[in-house]
Fold this sequence. Notes:
Elements lengths: L2 H9 L8 H9 L4 E4 L6 H12 L3 E4 L3 H13 L4 E4 L5 H13 L4 E4 L7 H9 L4 E4 L19 H6 L6 E5 L4 H10 L6 E4 L7 E6 L4 H9 L6 E5 L3 H13 L4 E4 L5 H12 L5 E4 L12 E6 L6 H8 L9 E6 L2 H13 L8 H23 L4 H8 L12 H4 L3 E4 L1 H13 L6 H8 L5 H5 L16 H13 L3 E3 L7 E3 L3 H5 L6 E4 L16 H21 L3 H4 L2 H10 L4 H4 L7 H25 L1
The chain binds adenosine-5'-diphosphate (ADP) and magnesium ion.
Amino acid sequence: MDKYQALQRYFGYSSFRPGQEEVIDALLSGRDVLAVMPTGAGKSLCFQIPALVLGGLTLVISPLISLMKDQVEALGQNGIPAVCLHSQMEEGERLAAWELLRRGSCRLLYIAPERLESQSFCSFLQKHPPRLVCVDEAHCVSQWGQDFRPGYLNIRGFLDSLPSCPVGAFTATATPQVKQDILGLLGLRRPVIRSTGFDRPNLYFEVRRPAHKWEELKKLLEPRREVTGIVYCSTRSQVDDVTGRLKQAGFSAAAYHAGMDGEHRRLAQEKFSRDEIRVMVATNAFGMGIDKSNIRYVIHYNMPGDLESYYQEAGRAGRDGGEADCILLFAQSDVMTQRFLISQDRENETLSPQQAEQVKQRSLYRLSKMRSYCLTDGCLRQKMLEYFGETSKKPCGHCSNCLCGAKPVDMTPQAQMFLCCAVRTGQRFGSSTLISVLRGSRSQGILDRGLQTQSTYGLWKTMDPKLAQRLVQKLEEQGYIRFTLGEYPVVKVTQKAKALLSGAERLYLALPQKEVQSTPIRKGGLEGASLNLFEQLRLRRKELAAAEGVPPYVVFSDSTLQEMALRRPVTREQFRTISGVGEVKLSRYGDAFLEVIRAFQQKRYRKT
Ligand code: ADP
Ligand code: MG
């Protein structure tokens, strides 16, 4: 069997995605490989296909039990014999797994790195050497990343104890230090290094700066009740708060954060992965273990501390290649929260004062980049890719900034008014007080301080408050003002502002020409009857998955169901041409889904 046959027969796909074929070829020709591909690019297939073509046993080292279980279940559904060994298995399961391994009838074995500490396990593999070893989430070997796992450091010694075989390392993290660590700490030999681009064209990016986040979130989720997604918050209490409100508003939501006990967390994750709840509200503790492919949106209720975290978290959407939305709700206070977190960073205590200071400076630098992503009026995708060292020449044309058709407007006079107001009031106030003065507020705070007599009072009477905020943000971004650190940041006018006050420099704001509404429900562009059929197919999938005790997306992915709903195959021959339908799934599920489609079509014909 060659790689194309394996792709079609077992996975039901007709072509490889970018990068996959090269990685597969390298492994098949006996080379070590480091593959850096973004989440959802299809890394698993890069070692699963070689495992089938090579025969024998392929060993896969993976950091989390939930990841292993998901993949083993998915492989089983495709008729590929695979097992995992982990600490939470029941006796019977374990014996069955060992039986398969001893008989040599198992293609892929998934383990956590800690298993390599078991002498008996290692000597089994020395006697029955694997044809290929793959290290998934290979960045876990590096202490530079946030997912460091000491167990990964055992891998190299273990590899040295085996007869030589190709080794593949897979990750979505591409920073140079992590890459160096993977190459060195895993001891890859003359590896083929393949990095695909970081762009994920199926993700839509949007930044909103709402006055009321909760209201905004509700507005965003209302049309998304039927699809699944994640809402990330930066603190545990916020997770609990948002979850409570969502439940109250009738949403199917659950919370996930490190303050909950392990059992509750596991339960929440399982329900989410089985489509039993729609929205997971979580801190960044909800992460790597999610292989769920049909996440249609990731909304950040707060801005994260850096773009690495943001892209990783947002990137959990749309793994099935279908359209998905990544929306960030920004507020100036998010920046304060992140600054506070950096100043409190506990890990710094093990470092020397100089080192700690350096780490802090780096964190502040990354924060400033994150912030400028939120404030930019340029293309969001370009900004992101640029940060990861990729140059994209053109604006993407479909992020919120590109879509709003922004036109630069000269705001120099208004900017001068703000600077004057700050200077004339003695540079003692924060931005909201200054904005109130300029907008001519009659609030008690303003009147008490006699600010209504200022010459700049009321000059911005007609200005939209949101626009006022953006103008101030832009002034800071361009370095004309800065905020003092501390609980109540005060506006200070910088030297640079002179040029703006004199008119030598000008300030432009890109003003959106229209309000952007992110496409609310993404079901692969399905409408009317097809959407209706898609819903019926989803129901059938849910029943089948429940009967077998697996997550629904393991039966078929959303994109496979979408294709069925659009093309409506009624014979087995037609059904097998749907992407994602391999031979085993055809015989296992074909009839169950064909039944739904046929009944649907008959009803339609009778009607017409
Ligand atoms: P990664 O590990 O890189 O994040 P996965 O291996 O989990 O990504 O794959 C993501 C999804 O893409 C899975 O649902 C997988 O079945 C699908 N996929 C992978 N390769 C292909 C392909 N060549 N054609 C269609 N779908 C694919
Ligand atoms: Mg993966």
